Amino acid sequence: MMVTVMISALLLQGALLMTPQAMPSPHFDVMAAYEAPAKKGASAHVVFEFKKKDPDVNINEEPAPRLKFASGSPLVAPPPPKSSGVIPDPANAHYLDLNKPVRFPVTITPDAPRGLSTVKTTLSYFYCSKRENWCRKGTADFDLAIVLP
Fold it and tell me: What's the whole-model pTM score?
């Protein structure tokens, strides 16, 4: 019983512990967290939160943010959504609601080692400034702490 309580506490702590990006961006602070499945058979998630440093700069819906893990990771990212490959015009782009976190469902590999580990994680995204009329690609790298049951 005590072991179950300790593992549950570690899982809960891992789900709430946000990791900052390795190299901060001039336009956003990005934080990441691993969210363990709430129950057996449920999906795990990697969750990202963006904090704007410039109120005029926004994250594009298209092309959608993409998640990538280093080779050998115990986590598998979803395939990236189809994209037109065109960076949108800042005046007509659609943006994510940054009041909500960006969530990616992830799969745990069958041979993943149990317990605490660190996963090298990269988030790629496009963002635009309407005021300055530009769009750019951004990346955020993380050493993401995860706890696998």
Answer: 0.81
